[in-house]
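Loading example: each entry is read as two labelled lines plus one structure line.
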Amino acid sequence: MIHAIAQAAAVLATALFIFSLHWMNDPKTARHGVVAGVTGMVIAVGATWIQPEIVHHGWIGLAIVAGFIVGVPLSLVPLTAVPQRTALSHAFGGLAAGLVGSAEYVLGLTENPAQLTTFRTSAIVAEVILGFLTFTGSLMAAGKLQEVKWIPQRPVTYPGQNVVNIGVLALAVALGVLVVLHPAAPWSGQAFYAIVGLAVLFGVLLIIPIGGADMPTVISILNSYAGLSAVAMGFVLNNKLLVTAGALDGSSGLILSIIMCRAMNRSFTNVLFGAFGTVQKTVAIGEQKAWKQETVEGAAQLLEQANLVVVIPGYGMAVAQAQHKVRELYDQLTKRGITVKFAIHPVAGRMPGHMNVLLAEANIPYTALVEMDEINPDMPQCDVALVIGANDVVNPAARYAKGSPIYGMPIIDADKAKTVLAIKRSKNPGFAGIDNELYVQDNTWMLFGDAKAVIGDLVKQLAGGSGLH
Amino acid sequence: MTDYGSMVFVFVLATFIGLGVIRRVSRLLYTPLMSLTNAISAIAVVGSIVVAGADYPTTIRVIGAVALFASMTNIVSGFLITDRMLKMFKKQ
């Protein structure tokens, strides 16, 4: 009877999880998704907890309380920090899988070697490798995103790096095969711990050469790994609910990774083994043209006379915390009957969809947020393209400069707008270290300074212009 | 004994359902999608509950409890932050 309850609960939870993701297809219904997800989770946890083999309840209660104590503050981080929170949660997911896999193996080894069948041991090895590499890899990614001091921000590369990385992984897999073939030999325990150690090491090595601009892709790939480690756990524990939920997570990570890679015109292997930041400054613009600087007054006038303004935000907007000032600018312009749209590049920000969340937080209606593919045909009609802290995603070199690290990457056609206003913190090149000829185009005007301050001045100018005169 | 065939079967079907459903997710919502799938895959908590709560040696149960804590953190923070973000998406 009680076992039947568990099975029914698993079916119900599976259905709820699928609905939960289904409702994410529209911002209007998305919040139902959270309710469905929470309901599914409570049902599944409850049905597991009441099973007769669960005899120690205190520890479970304690761990759940501790999860709340850490989880609630983690859900309240500023939205600029959401990428590192996400990376951290991948790390926790990987850790849980790795630990449960290890526990199951040690249990099999010490209590009942007959449980270590070929299939189950393979699943345990896969779970432990995926789990622990996701754990340390995601911790490193979170550290890089949080700009923790002792984790280098810039990609770290050395000769033979890929050989070392693949070697470490291959060694872990080879030991895994040995453990699967001889699950209960006298040396199997040591071999198993070596696998854990190698997976932990591989996670670190994998992320060291990766730079900030690749983070959206890397986070998506780690998401996929975290899901797959949950699937492996499901195989180990013979739990279909776990397999299903893990597969949903894994396929979500996979789709996002593909979208991110396409948006950068790069392959998985190129992201993981290519070290973006190292190939740079190979292409210089033929002749160095000079910037043309615009005053705040001039820029405000340009904006005021426009019919269609397209704002192109990049990570620089988030760094400067300028999104709320952007909202004020949006209000000033829409008040005048000017259409304002936001052109969102898929890899703008530090994780998939990051810009949308930051702009939504600033109360910009989501109907004003437009995907790159949808906005590009409208760019020739755009009177002013306002580039805020974005660089590589508007660099026309991506279209033709073979040999440039961003060659082939789809970009937002800011250069096709009638006028371009670009706000830039300094006169240095962007993340990829490439010059951006958009800035020296005949119809481009630069506004140098902190994005928040510059937009604040623009808002003041526009408010003053309409109010006092 | 475990029916491995049906487990693999479930995995393949679930992956296809996942690909189908996720492909339709609004592009606006990729960040909350990731925190939501994160919270959902923390269903791994059911595995940790068994390891932490069954009649196993103490070391095993300690490992289980740590795993349980990690999954629980993901569930709580994942669902809460997803809802927090989704609340911000307004039409006007």
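Chain B has a mean pLDDT of 93.
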